[in-house]
Specification:
308 residues; 11 helices; globular; mainly alpha; Rhopdopsin 7-helix transmembrane proteins
């Protein structure tokens, strides 16, 4: 039986309803988005042009930065432009497209972070076999699997969602299209769909357990190392652990629970859709001497060319 939708357009309530708060939000989040694009773009450029950043770790980092650019661009431009208008609307098809790419890229990022944890495990616990285990073909396969995993996850989510009937109202209590707010608008019971989405989101739990296990093994392995060896090994992991906590914390709060919404959801979403993608290149740059040196060399080269 064909699904009949009386709703063809959705209206966002937005992050704030107060006009002054929306103006302040525009002034804050536009630079945040620009910084996200520039910071992650710089990471991609440096990794792909620097001869000193050719290890698997930086190969994965460049792909993570590319995912961050796409992930943030799925949500933020629409949100920022909506701050300038009174009616924040999106077509139902556009909403479904946003849901698809948001979850596709989000899970691709989760899987990439998991791959990066495995990379650190091999580098620290099996250093003599590192370049054999993490050969370039293997790295390409791991990145490919991350993209396919994100695609498969998102396909399940969107197949569930597009089958729901939307009869009205058409006001979505959020600043972008996501599953829980959409489920509230469906003119049918969504308990089963919520359970399926919850089960499908367990991929995040599995990935997180793998991450924790990898770092537990690393810590056990480091007990036999010298203090200097432990310091160097942990310094390569610190940035990755920080990014993992920033991403998994909000995602766990939002998706690993039944289909319901809390007033805090929108503020938590701001953190992982806008703030975390901006912070990632800063975190990796500040805590990584090789990346900082590559940035300095790039800046020095630019100054020399500018002076000629």
């Amino acid at each position: 039986m064909a699904i009949k939708n009386n709703v063809t357009q959705l209206i966002f309530t937005g992050l704030f309803q107060d006009p002054e708060a929306q103006t302040v939000s525009f002034v804050i989040f536009l630079p945040v988005y620009v910084a996200t694009m520039l910071g992650n773009g710089l990471i991609i450029f440096i990794v792909n042009t620097s001869k000193n950043l050719n290890s698997p770790m930086y190969f994965f980092l460049s792909h993570l930065s590319f995912v961050e650019i796409c992930y943030s661009s799925t949500i933020v431009p629409k949100f920022i432009s909506g701050l300038l208008v009174e009616n924040k609307t999106i077509s139902l098809d556009g909403c479904m497209t946003q849901v698809f790419f948001f979850h596709f890229l989000g899970v691709a990022e989760i899987l990439l972070l998991t791959v990066m944890a495995y990379d650190r495990y091999v580098a620290i616990c099996k250093p003599l076999h590192y370049m054999t285990i993490m050969s370039r073909p293997v790295c390409h396969v791991l990145v490919f699997v991350s993209w396919i995993g994100g695609m498969f996850h998102s396909m399940i989510q969107i197949v569930i969602t597009v089958q729901l009937p939307f009869c009205g109202p058409n006001v979505i209590d959020h600043y972008f299209c996501d599953l829980h707010p959409l489920f509230k608008l469906a003119c049918t019971d969504t308990f089963v769909e919520g359970i399926i989405v919850f089960a499908n989101s367990l991929i995040a739990v599995i990935s997180f357990l793998f991450l924790i296990s990898s770092y537990f093994v690393i810590l056990v392995h480091l007990r036999n190392q010298t203090a200097e060896g432990r310091r160097k090994a942990l310094s390569t992991c610190a940035s990755h652990i920080t990014v993992v906590l920033l991403f998994f914390g909000p995602a766990t709060f939002l998706y690993l629970r039944p289909s319901s919404t809390f007033t805090e959801d929108k503020l938590v979403s701001v953190f992982y859709t806008m703030v975390t993608p901006m912070l990632n290149p800063i975190i990796y740059t500040l805590r990584n001497a090789e990346v900082k040196n590559a940035v300095k060399r790039l800046w020095t080269m630019k100054v020399k060319l500018g002076g000629e």
